[in-house]
């Protein structure tokens, strides 16, 4: 799986560089009059493939994030500060500006039976030691607090459970 990720990243970088080089080649350079009579330079080989986006958009930027610097959170176990099982992250809630506001945790039950979804404030979670898939995220709430929270249902107003004083109200975007 890791090899596939590197392969995809390599292909994206090569595609981006190819587009950048092709755009640079398309620009007509301004040559001084002394170079106007100079012999023509060799043309690129016929096998060179030029990739140009159809819509003329610039190529995307590429950022490389080290494997130890960032980790996915969906499906990750959540535990309380007292090491109680709090469930598993099943969704992320963002506001209209794209800022992460909360996480949906599948709480309670056994093997998905009898569980319910609870929304917790993103700032109430601590990601300190998530080095591999087995590591969990810590939630600054007790199991009793989460158990008392109302269930989350999609497309209905949600109650976001947060650590005392940490939740900021959602501002309406005009």
How would you describe what is shown here?
With 174 residues, the protein is of the alpha/beta class. It is built from 2 helices and 7 strands. The protein has helices at residues 2-26, 143-147; strands spanning 77-80, 85-94, 100-107, 116-121, 125-126, 137-139, 160-161. It has a 7-stranded mixed β-sheet with strand order 5-6-1-2-3-4-7. A hairpin with a 5-residue loop joins strand 2 and strand 3. The longest helix has 25 residues, at 2-26. The protein is globular.
Secondary-structure topology with pairs:
Layout: H1 2-26, E1 77-80, E2 85-94, E3 100-107, E4 116-121, E5 125-126, E6 137-139, H2 143-147, E7 160-161
Parallel strand pairs: 1-6, 4-7
Antiparallel strand pairs: 1-2, 2-3, 3-4, 5-6
* Strand order, sheet with most strands: 5-6-1-2-3-4-7
Q: Could you give the distance between the termini?
A: 42 Å
Helix content: 10-25%
Structural class assignment: alpha/beta
Q: Got a strand count? A: 7
Q: Give the overall form.
A: globular
- Write the element-wise H/E pattern from the N-terminal end onward: HEEEEEEHE
Low-confidence stretches: 17-22, 28-33
Number of helices: 2
**What's the rounded overall pLDDT mean?**
73
- Rg for CA atoms: 26 Å
Largest sheet: 7 strands, mixed
Query: Strand-residue fraction?
Result: 15-25%
């Amino acid at each position: 799986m890791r090899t596939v990720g590197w392969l995809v990243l390599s292909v994206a970088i090569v595609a981006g560089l190819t587009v950048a080089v092709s755009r640079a080649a398309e620009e007509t350079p301004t040559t001084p009059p002394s170079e106007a009579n100079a012999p023509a330079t060799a043309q690129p080989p016929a096998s060179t493939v030029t990739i140009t986006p159809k819509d003329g958009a610039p190529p995307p930027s590429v950022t490389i994030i080290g494997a130890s610097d960032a980790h996915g959170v969906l499906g990750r176990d959540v535990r309380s500060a007292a090491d109680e099982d709090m469930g598993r992250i099943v969704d992320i809630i963002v506001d209209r500006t794209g800022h992460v506001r909360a996480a949906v945790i599948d709480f309670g039950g056994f093997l998905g039976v009898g569980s319910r979804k609870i929304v917790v404030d993103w700032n109430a979670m601590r990601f300190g030691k998530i080095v591999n898939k087995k590591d969990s995220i810590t939630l600054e709430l007790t199991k009793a607090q989460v158990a008392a929270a109302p269930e989350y249902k999609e497309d209905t107003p949600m109650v976001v459970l947060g650590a005392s004083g940490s939740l900021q109200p959602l501002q309406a975007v005009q």
